[in-house]
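Please review this pair:
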Amino acid sequence: MQSRRCGRWPPSTTTDDLSMLELELEACAMPEDGGGVFSTLQTIWERPWAIRRLAAAMVAAFGVGMVYYGMPLSVGSLGSNLYLSTAYNALAEVLSAVLAWLLIARASRRVSVVALAASAGACNLACAAIPQGAEAARMAAELLAFFATCMASDVLLIYSTELFPTSVRNSAVGLVRQAMVLGGAAAPVLVALGRQRSIWSFGVFGLAIGCSGLFAASLPETRGKIMSDDMDKEERKRSEAAVAS
């Protein structure tokens, strides 16, 4: 996708009209074909490697979103104090944001997403398996599951920004985010079913995030790599990496 040619910066003539300056910058950045989200999606669709990345990230985001939005709705079925459980979940989300920031600076993105999704899935299944009488154990398993899910959500969104070149990044990350919200839209149905049997809420949550997180294993690792500006540069980097290997 090529952009219009612009003059040298700064321009040869000075102006005090900032609105005209903004219009010039917008004209320089505007693609010749009109741009827009549909043009960006077509650009992604025309490249198999890009659509594979987007599909894998969206599937992983769907499972993470289902658990991220569904677990706070399920705390009422744990048998423990509802207000205390909600407060613990809020504290876990705050701590997860801090630890995710530390994790993303030191660990592999791909391994982190897969490991966190698997941990959240295992804790959800444990929460479904623990009997109703053990409220403390169920709350501990739910907190660990929600903590891992929050970290997986943060890491996955950061990971998504590094998977796509600058020219299509906003649209791609927006679709990943929408997949996460769509997973959250399916969560209330499972929460309602899980009021009678936890397997329909925590059990399905565990299977959903555990299985969907495996799709992140097919994504390329981006830690320490320079992000490309457009699709052509990304394809050249992929070709060079293939030749070098």
Notes: Confidence is low (pLDDT under 50) at residues 1-5, 12-16, 18-34.
